[in-house]
Amino acid sequence: MTGRLLAIDGLNIVRRVYEASPEPDSDLKAEIAMRHAFSAFQRLVNGHEPTHILPAFDYGGSTWRHTLYQGYRAGRQPMPEVLREALPEFYMQLTRLGMCPIAIPDVEADDVIGTVVTRWLTEGRGEAVVASTDKDLHCLIAEGARIWDHFKSEWHDRDWVEKKWGVTPGMLPDLLALMGDETDSIPGVSNVGVKTAAKLLRTYGTLDAIMAGAGILKDKVGESLRKEREMLYLSRQLVQLKTDVKIGVSWNMLAWDHR
């Protein structure tokens, strides 16, 4: 029997639920958000009927990306303290339900999901569903995963990615490196937006091929590419999912027994 892995980008759900309320930060707001988030997790499990569940969370603090680039996520609002304080109890609730929440120092939840999903698919264990709206995770579609947008109740597949960004899922890290990513303060290249980045990738295929051809581009974009080469390759490292994280759990520990 083939399995189905459900990887849940935990804070993607928790923070969006919390921020959906216009109320000022408070213990009560955090408590209500956690209740809604818990229901959302239950709905995901009931809707997707997985054999295995990976609830991945950011550990918090700095990561390998901050070490690489000090400006990483510099513009992002920190998590409200009341919400951070409510997380341990939320993890306990998930554990009591039979899940195994995972947060690993120095890496992000995206890296944990990237590692586990890639391993699951490489080992031929069945299908993989990733519940997240995070664009960085959409590159996993190229590996055979499907992305589920819990908030819009819609599937994101190869066609969806091509329609939205103009490139295939496998090209997404190159696209994000070129255009930058404001939410994570990843600079990208000046004068390159999503349309230009997609056009370059459709023409050349990869970042390296674009840079090999940058010498013949006489316009502003060519100039920016030549001048900002180092920052472009740094951006490319920052958007890449780390897929060799030591998770320290077995498939058995992630198994869901439909309790």
TrEMBL record:
| Keyword annotations of the record | DNA-binding, Exonuclease, Hydrolase, Nuclease
Transmembrane helix as UniProt keyword:
no
Under the heading Pfam families, the entry gives: 5_3_exonuc, 5_3_exonuc_N
* Recorded superkingdom: Bacteria
Q: Locate the 5'-3' exonuclease domain: which residues?
A: 3-257
Query: Which molecular function terms from Gene Ontology are attached?
Result: 5'-3' exonuclease activity; 5'-flap endonuclease activity; DNA binding
Gene Ontology biological-process entries: DNA replication, Okazaki fragment processing
Q: Which PANTHER family match?
A: 5'-3' EXONUCLEASE FAMILY PROTEIN (PTHR42646:SF2), FLAP ENDONUCLEASE XNI (PTHR42646)
Which named protein is this? Answer: 5'-3' exonuclease
Q: Which organism is it from?
A: Pseudoduganella guangdongensis
